[in-house]
Amino acid sequence: MKTPRTFADALADTALKSVFNPYRDHCVLHDRDDGARVRKRNLVHCLEASIETKVDTIWIARDLGYRGGRRTGVPLTDEVHLTSASALLGGITLDRATRGPVVAERTAAVVWRVLTQIEAPAVLWNIFPLHPHEPDDSLSNRCHTRSERDATWPFLTALIAMIAPRRIVAIGRDAGLALSGIEIPVMTVRHPSYGGQSEFIAGVHAIYGLHKNDPAPELPFLSSQAASGAMA
Fold this sequence. Notes:
Blueprint lengths: L3 H9 L6 E2 L14 H18 L4 E7 L5 H4 L9 H7 L17 H13 L4 E6 L2 E2 L13 H18 L3 E5 L1 H6 L7 E4 L7 H11 L16 H4 L5
Parallel strand pairs: 2-3, 2-5, 5-6
Antiparallel strand pairs: 1-4
């Protein structure tokens, strides 16, 4: 897993119960015929561009969500913000892997609002890099288990080795605790879901040395279903 392509190949080979692997699996409800291949290509393009431009910071949340990275293959990024991700990484090609209307995710909206403000690219990732769901509902979100984390932890260490970041931003308490043993400076900020938007934005601004007196009003919930997808 020393290059983005070998990394993505290994990730695509991972299969776990009650887990949707966006780089391997096909969603019969929403995916294009080549959806998994498109998501895998999106991931490779993001990683290659990050290495080429020497991006020095990784933002890490907990799990992929069904409205965001599950659909795009890009962590913390919904379909609404694929263009933003492309622009921030120098105009790389990122394509939709799904059919039908573009789907938005609350967490992605806040994350990309801040990334646009700071105008600095970051590698986006999750402690568990796949989408864990309830056994009877593939379009739901749940927290990954310890065994699932252990099974995919080598991908996190491989990513860190590829990117060689000088710092990691942990998004949310769960991500911060999981990264407590990493031998790289880890700064934890509040997760933007469930009323945490202002604290998240203030925390990231502090890390990047921005001192804006902008309270960043809360974005409205997309829907109760969208809110359940906020942990991506």
